[in-house]
Amino acid sequence: MTRNGNPWVVLAVIVGGYFMAQMDLTVLTVALPSIVADLDASVVEGLWAVNAYVLALAISLITAGRLGDLYGSRRVFAVGLGMFTLFSLVCALAQSPAQLIVARGFQGLGAALIVPQILAMIVALFPEDRRGTALGIRGSVGAGAALAGPVIGGLLVHTLDWRWVFLINIPIGLLLLILTLTLIPQVAPERKRRLDLVGVVLSAAALFLAVFALTQGEETGWAAWIWIALAGSAGTACLFVAHQRRNQGREPLLPFGVFSGRRFPLMCLAGAGVSMGMIGLTVVLSFYLQSGLGTGALVAGAVLAPASLVSMVLAPFVGRFSDRVDAKLLLLAGLVLTGGGMAWIALSMAPDASWTGLIPVMLVIGAGNSMLFTPLTAIATRGLAPAVAGSAGGVLATVLQLGAAFGSAAVSAVMQSGADTGAFTDATRSAMLIPISAIAIATALALAVQRTPPASAGKAAPKPSAHDVSHEESHRDQRDAG
């Protein structure tokens, strides 16, 4: 990737793809009743139309990130856009639940090819002293997608038909694909590369077993086979790590150079904690408001929406600010605001509480959220070689998905125990300890990372050219092989 063309124009194109991929994580939830009725599907089949996308996305991110390193981020991004758009059409034309579920899986695979390339292209296009601004815009787009998904989905289902939830992706996807091929430069590797197929199989198997078990655990009452699947995931992950260690001198799926230094591994773990905390808070509040206080889904959405809205508005400013101050300080401020807001909610939970009292604290949490993922990613990518930026993006996106899966499963298990005993409000208050603890662990990890002063504080390193990047990777491979 070179700096030919306007990087801000390129950023606009790639965050458009990011918006589509993120929005489709949530857009289908409000359309499920219509889908179930129209396709004569069961509720479980309807839910699998959602889960198939999440599962395919989660198990493919590491592989997709490495594909970008090996064959070029623009090429893989374009393939992802094409696949996402094509299978959006297939979803819209589905005549049975099975057809929709399979198409959603392929659509999720397309999204997986898109997501890691965003970070890779930002690293390649923006020097470190301007990268925070770009990451802030990406964060704002992600928050906007999470907020817009249910709104756009509900509007389309109400005014047109559930199939338009997918049809709307087609003109947008085609436009982005054309802009990608015309505006984003492509740098091909100087030598032929190959993908570590054994690593692909092992990583996909480990992630599939983990995510599938976590998403199905509550529904099955945490049956024995769920724990067997989790154990199988851990064992397969060990095999994957051993295989990658042996393969570092050749073409590994996961270059261990990504984890050199402390910043990236610490921020991966912190990111998992943040993701676990945020999804845990969302699940707990949704159940508390609707099952504990007896409000409807509309009120629950009205309470949760301000956090996403504030985060969406503030994230670009936080990104720009992170180019000027120590990103670690911004991250810590965000964690304190988020964790403090969660504690406030836990202490105020009561059977006779008013839902309106939660809105101010959700505004505080939204402000905290705006200072989480952008500084975290800025710290993680400091000093990252562009040649492995795709792998880094895949790993970071994967741990965020796993954190969300763990968070949802953990709080659901705690709340189910409360529902069984009739002490639902007490159970939701206890469940809040999980996201609060996750944020506390993320805070400890953020404290452990070295300071990350703005790159503009010193002389910025010259931007590597495409030849420099390829030569650096070639030299590293020769050194590792020796």
For the structure shown, list the relevant keywords:
single chain, 482 residues, mainly alpha, Growth Hormone, Chain: A, 77% helix, globular
Describe this structure in words.
It is a single chain. With about 475 residues, this protein is an all-alpha fold. It contains 19 helices and no strands. The protein has three domains: about 1-190, Up-down Bundle (Growth Hormone, Chain: A); about 195-250; about 255-455 and about 465-480, Up-down Bundle (Growth Hormone, Chain: A). It has helices spanning about 5-25, 30-40, 45-70, 75-95, 95-125, 130-160, 165, 170-185, 195-215, 225-245, 265-290, 295-320, 325-350, 360-370, 375-380, 390-420, 425-430, 435-450, 465-480. Mean pLDDT is about 80; it is low at about 460-480. It is found in: Cell membrane. One of its GO terms (molecular function) is transmembrane transporter activity. InterPro entries: EmrB-like, MFS, MFS_dom, MFS_trans_sf.
- Principal-axis shape equals globular
Helix content: over 70%
Provide the β-strand percentage band: under 5%
Total count of helical runs of at least 4 residues: 19
CATH topology of the largest domain: Growth Hormone, Chain: A
Report how far apart the termini are. Answer: 28 Å
Total individual domains: 3
SSE arrangement, N to C:
HHHHHHHHHHHHHHHHHHH
Within CATH, the superfamily of the largest domain carries the name MFS general substrate transporter like domains
Uncertain regions spanning at least 5 consecutive residues: 458-482
The tally of strands reads 0
**What is the mean pLDDT?**
81
Q: Any guess at the CATH architecture of the largest domain? A: Up-down Bundle
Structural class: mainly alpha
Radius of gyration: 22 Å
Please describe the biggest sheet, giving its number of strands, its sense, and whether it closes into a barrel.
none
Q: What is the C-level CATH assignment of the largest domain?
A: Mainly Alpha
